[in-house]
Amino acid sequence: MSDDLVPDDLWERIAPLLPPRPPRRHRYPGRLPADDRAALRGIVYVLRKNVSWRDVPAERTGCSGVTAWRRLRDRTEAGVWPSLHEVLLAELRKAGLLDMDDCAIDGSHVRALKRGAHTGPSPVDRARPGSKHHLIVDRHGTPLAVTLTGGNRHDVTQLTPLLDAIPRIRGLVGRPRHRPGRLFADRGYDYDKYRRILRARGITPKIARRGVPHGSGLGKTRWVVERTFAWLHQFKRLRIRYEIRSDLHLGLLQLACSIICLRRLRTSF
């Protein structure tokens, strides 16, 4: 089996978060369930390669694509992916690799081929059905939280949901960190209402103004969110939304964010 899909450091962090399996029946127990690590290999394989679930190579992953999809469904419903992301953010903070004094926020369109919840006519793709990934990152581009909406939703509508989605990040003595110091955003977030909301939360807004020439200088800080979108879209399954169920697509997004956090931990050693 190929462990380049689920290396030991990823498996060691996710294994304690998996819900326990139900006990097998004593009489007529049926087949042995597929190994959890093998099922995770199948999920990561689809995330990276963007093959259909039925085309997952069992000889490489150790399980069928149908089993991998079922485990994705079960792990998503159990909340495993946001828990994994929170664990890795705490490790980054403990290692001094998380800088939330300056954060950046943005959204990115993706086409949705099969419609479903959180899809809508995309204003940048001739009204074809699409979805939007909304992301907030720290100064280094580490993803802090991600949300999913329809392609016709305005970016600014996800400003407060993204802030609320940032977990209380532990890792150091004292209060958990869950709030940016300053938040950088482009002209799409230029509304005084949302500036007031940020200041009420103790966050300094750094939002470009509409109707003024380019060259505000904010791009020197907020470019990291564009780079993180590029990292996310290296996972080919996230470039186009294939999942009808929005929670499964969001689960894959959260898993990709966790893998990006783990890569940052690896490069620090």
Automatic annotation (TrEMBL):
Coiled-coil region: none
Residue span(s) of domain Insertion element IS402-like: 7-85
Residues annotated as domain Transposase IS4-like: 102-259
Cross-referenced PANTHER family: BLR1914 PROTEIN, PHP DOMAIN PROTEIN
Protein name stated in the entry: IS5 family transposase
Protein's organism: Streptomyces zaomyceticus
